[in-house]
Task: structure prediction
Amino acid sequence: MHLNPADLRRVSVFREATDEDLQLFLSQAILRTVEEGEFFFLQGDPAVFFYILVSGRAKLLQSNAAGHQVNLRTINEWQMFGALGAVKPGAVYPATAQALEPSTALAIESAFLHEALKTRPYLNFGLMQLMTGYIQEMQERYRELATERVERRIALTVLRLASQVGKRLAGDEMMIELPLSRQDVAEASGTTMFTVSRVLAEWERRGLVEAGRERVLIRNPHGLVQIAEGLNP
Amino acid sequence: MHLNPADLRRVSVFREATDEDLQLFLSQAILRTVEEGEFFFLQGDPAVFFYILVSGRAKLLQSNAAGHQVNLRTINEWQMFGALGAVKPGAVYPATAQALEPSTALAIESAFLHEALKTRPYLNFGLMQLMTGYIQEMQERYRELATERVERRIALTVLRLASQVGKRLAGDEMMIELPLSRQDVAEASGTTMFTVSRVLAEWERRGLVEAGRERVLIRNPHGLVQIAEGLNP
DNA sequence: GTTCCTGTTTGCGCTGGCGCAAAGAAGGAA
DNA sequence: TTCCTTCTTTGCGCCAGCGCAAACAGGAAC
Result:
């Protein structure tokens, strides 16, 4: 794989970086490729590296002692992940990063980023903006989980996932494709595979989505938004 | 109220600040006092100020369209809150801050912090450490809400609240007092007042806690930890 | 084509926890 | 002291959603 510094500018944190800085980070990077289902890192591992996804898709998940797991976030190309370790030296990853498809990522030592932060205000702001975004998303999702019913939560989740990892279908701009299994959606919305399956089946009957194997196709985003907003109970 | 710069050093973000910086921030601060139940700011307001609680207690909460609300975090003396707005100029508060008791806070313009961040790496690190802490706590709580049963969630919540706002009882170091109503605990653990009341009554029968009006006294923290860890089903 | 694997659907029964309503208790005010 | 407000408890009924089990189906490999 050929990477040039300008590619790095697609990473939100590096948007305002100088060419020299990009070159510097790239020179520190190792390319890691993992197969579908494999892990970039596990919850609890020392956070030695942070990553930038170059190709493929991955998810960040957390699991409890009983093995029950929840999806925290889906990672797309040119997104940074595992960067919390750069803030506190000696930290461990608070979540697991697993590839949803064969994926490649740049791995750079957290300590390197930590040093760089000391002299580059733009990096600080970029990273903080990322963090505030996560905080707000997690707060919202927490509230949804605590206060909304499943159907609405699933609608909110599918819409969120669509905006994060959805691909608009060539030919029809309104249709969005999601490469996610029922289980994935269940873990992202805090419910079970069975319930997701039933809800999607009902939506399919109403013509809102098309539900395939490890795939959800949104036919009518507006209808989903109505459910998400509780206008269509 | 008399405040001197050294007091500000009790704020985690200012731990490594110079005396001049503390003086500078203090000179920018306005003192705001609010009564119990009143608000420092509301969800959706422009985030013009960030706050440092000087005395009293407050909570950060979010509510949905139907008015159903969840507690995101409890704020203690010398904690900073409402600071997300300093990162993105023009942002709004993503949550509401409400006083649990008569409280006083320093209010400083977000824009001032924003400027200060550009030239003071220690502030950046401090703020980022705070943020990573929130992210991790929210991720944990989200997972708990998605995967754990109520009793366990309530135990985890009570323990978390104890570590954040609990007061050790003079005389018996093991006993911790929480000045929170059933409703508060319900909103912090994602359940209803009724369920919290029933669970606390059962714990009281077992001698784990003493439940009073707007008050929970933990008699046996270790027993609660067992429930929280699922060892005592 | 056939086989196998893995993900999905659906019927069914069950129960955890919600939420109303009404009574009870703890403070504060007067 | 009594009254009033606010918080808490508890009985009761109910149902959303869970979770098992078994059948079903899409896709890859051969």
About this structure: Chain B touches chain A through 43 residues (CB under 8 Å). Residues 61 and 183 of chain B are 13 Å apart (CA to CA). The radius of gyration of chain B is 19 Å.
